[in-house]
Amino acid sequence: MATRCTCTASLAVLALVAALLIAYYTAGSGVTCSVVSVTVVTVLVSLWLWSLWWRNAGTDRRVCVLVLGDIGRSPRMQYHALSLSKHGYNVTFVGFLDTKPHQDVLREEKIRIVPIIEVKGVRVGPKILTYVTKVILQCLQLLHVLLKMETQSHILMQNPPGLPGIAVVWLVCVLRGSRFVIDWHNYGYTIMALSHGQTHPLVRLAKWYEHFFGPLATHNLCVTNAMKIDLQKNWGIKATTLYDRPASIFRETPLKLQHELFMRLANAYPQFQSKESEEVERTVFSVCDLAGDTVTLRTERPALLLSSTSWTEDEDFSVLLTALEEYEGFIAGGASLPSVVCVITGKGPQKEHYRKLIDSLHLEHVKICTPWLEPEDYPVLLGSADLGVCLHKSSSGLDLPMKVVDMFGCCLPVCAIHFNCLHELVKHEENGLIFRDSQELAEQLKSLLSEFPGSGGRLGVFRRNLRSSRGQRWDDNWDQNVLPLLSAP
Q1: Residue 10's pLDDT band (boundaries 50, 70, 90)?
Q2: What angle do CA 278, 283, 288 make, to 5 degrees?
Q3: Is the peptide bond before 453 cis (omega within 30 degrees of 0)?
Q4: Residue 250: its pLDDT value, please?
Q5: Checking DSSP bridges between strand 303-308 and strand 340-345, what pairing results, if any?
Q6: Cα separation, 399 vs 421, whole angstroms
Q7: Mean per-residue pLDDT for 438-452?
Q8: Is 338 left (phi over 0), alpha (psi -120 to 50) or beta?
Q9: What is the pLDDT of residue 348?
């Protein structure tokens, strides 16, 4: 870095001397001051552009990973950063720091997090003014951050959100000679359409924006084959499918770790607390014999149902709540079914709306809580659960829910709501079930939990299928599909 500063300073001095000499020798020759000014400006601009393009021996081992969202809630981008660092790349990770990233990211010396803030725009006047000023301010912030850092060999950006990031990153890559890689998780305009409608001017503008700037990237990644086909057919973009795969932290949780997590959760959530006052360490799910330090699961325990969410418009949790009310009705009608503790994790804009709906329910055999878990605790809870539920409904019909990928990494069977390309991940009657409405989900819960906690029913079959059909983990998948792109022209 010192060498770069020295070279730039030296060239600045030379440029100034050259400008003074030009001014001196042309003063009496009729050359106007405007010509001298243009010459000085040209030299200085050339110097600035040269400083942007300046590369050293470490440039090819530097990659910027960018997400215009919360780093802590962007697991795929965190995995990208970790994979890059494992292969010797120095990673500059740019994004919001609303929640804590995973410890592996924080501990890795080759990953440097550069936080940016989510700008709000002008809060007075029409909404369009707020939106326009927000975009302008975000552009200026990104330009400042990206041009300030050392030259990167690649900038890997998540989309969505891509407005205004795609255009800014493309410009920076042109100025600095970096390669631009977009990781397509979905289409931004389809997400905007959920709240504004397909014909809204902002939605149409966002669609044009993605169609125009998306093809300018050097390389493209996407999350499904369906999206790969759509990008090629309708966008003229050739993309590499990089399926989400579970990281190594997602696995079945040993009983001792299960109990330790249940005990921590019991301190904050009564749904995990045991009402017995025996001389043992006990939760509603587990018992620890302190003398022998052995943990067992209680035979009369409730089923642990887990769902995770960002509480956004593409997930309708009223479907799950209605299904749980119907499940309560099955028990009230005499069905031999276990009680259920339903844990819904995550943060997002609609959380308070659904918490009010949950508080309005009067259920005796179904308990619901909505904690926010630390990144280290989330895979432990997944590996401790009995059944997962996914309500993600792709706005484009072309992406897959990463939460199901993580559940499968923990050999956790899933009930997932239907959309077009879900079959690329969830195999109906093999590793889970696909439903279309709350009534069908309620019937699936009744069927899967009818023999709980025994392992001989359909739930046990699905879990055994997941254990025997484990595919690639993230690291192998990334090495096969992304690593070659970094050396490609």
Answers
A1: very low
A2: 65
A3: yes
A4: 92
A5: parallel
A6: 7
A7: 95
A8: beta
A9: 86
How many Å apart are CA 482 and CA 80, to the nearest integer? 9
Instruction: Reply yes or no on whether the pLDDT at 24 is more than 70.
Output: no
Buried b (16+ CB within 10 A) or exposed e, 180-197: bbbbbbbbbbbbbbeeee
pTM of the entire predicted model: 0.80
Instruction: Supply 93's token pair.
Output: 């990770």
Three-state SS at 186: coil
Burial 439-466 (b: 16+ CB within 10 A, else e): ebbbbbbbebbbbbbeeeebbbbbbebb
Strand partners, 340: 303, 366
**Whole-Å CA distances, 78 to 16, 402, 489:** 45, 13, 25
Which tokens hold the place of 94? Answer: 């740019």
Question: What is each CA distance from 216 to 135, 141, 209, 237, 475, in whole angstroms?
Answer: 20, 22, 11, 9, 28
Residue 164 preceded by cis peptide, ω within 30: yes
> How many Cα atoms within 13 Å fall on the side-chain side of residue 334?
0
CA–CA dist 247, 316 (Å, integer): 27
**Tens-digit pLDDT profile for residues 192-232:** 998 888 899 889 999 999 999 999 999 999 999 999 999 99
Output DSSP code: residue 172.
H
Tally of CB atoms within 10 A around 206 = 23
CB–CB of 320/441 below 8 Å?
Answer: yes
Q: Residues, the chain, total? A: 489
Please enumerate, as own/partner, the contacts of 165-168 that have beta carbons within 8 Å and a separation of 24 or more.
Answer: 165/66, 165/68, 165/138, 166/209, 166/210, 166/213, 166/214, 166/216, 166/217, 167/139, 167/209, 167/213, 168/139, 168/142, 168/143
Amino acid symbol at 474: W
Q: What pLDDT digit, counting tens, does each position of 67-113 carry?
A: 999 999 899 999 999 999 999 999 999 999 988 899 999 999 999 99
Contact between residue 196 and residue 171 where contact means Cβ atoms under 8 Å apart: no
pLDDT-derived band at 22, boundaries 50, 70, 90: low
Write the DSSP string, 285-312.
SEEEETTTTEEEE-TTPPEEEEEE----
Write down the pLDDT at residue 269.
94
CA nearest neighbour of 316 among 204, 197, 435, 444? 435
State phi, psi for 114 to the nearest 5 degrees. Answer: -115, 100
Exposure on the CB side of residue 71, measured as CA atoms within 13 A: 26
Candidate from 254-258, 259-263, 272-276, 421-425 with smallest mean pLDDT: 272-276
Q: Where are the beta strands (DSSP E) in 215-329?
A: 219-222, 240-241, 281-282, 286-289, 294-297, 303-308
pLDDT of res. 329: 96
